[in-house]
Amino acid sequence: MLVVADGVVTNILIKKDLAWEGNPVLQGIAGGYGLIVVKIVGSLVAAWILWDIHRRNPRLAFWIAVAFDLIYAAIVVWNVRVLILG
Questions:
Q1: CA-to-CA distance for 59 and 77, rounded, in angstroms?
Q2: Closest Cα to residue 25, out of 42, 49, 8?
Q3: Can you give the residue ranges of every domain in the chain?
Q4: Separation between Cα atoms, residue 53 and residue 62, nearest integer Å
C-alpha cells in the first residue's frame, strides 16, 4: 500500500508542479494513471517474489519486507510533507 500511496501523492505533486518523478524509467508516465498501474503491478510482482523467498527463508523475507516498508514509509512521509508545505 505504501508503494501505491507513493504513486498517488507523486501524481498529485506533479500535477501541482511541486515535484517531478525521480525515477527516469517512470518519468514518462508520471502524473497520470499509468504510474499507479505500474506501482500496483510492481507491488504484486514484489509480493510474489517475497513470498517465494519466504518459502525458503522466512527470516530473510521478514527483514526484506521491513527494510522496504521503512524506505517507502520515508518516501511517503517526505512526499506528503512537500504537499503540505508546498
A1: 27
A2: 42
A3: 2-85
A4: 9
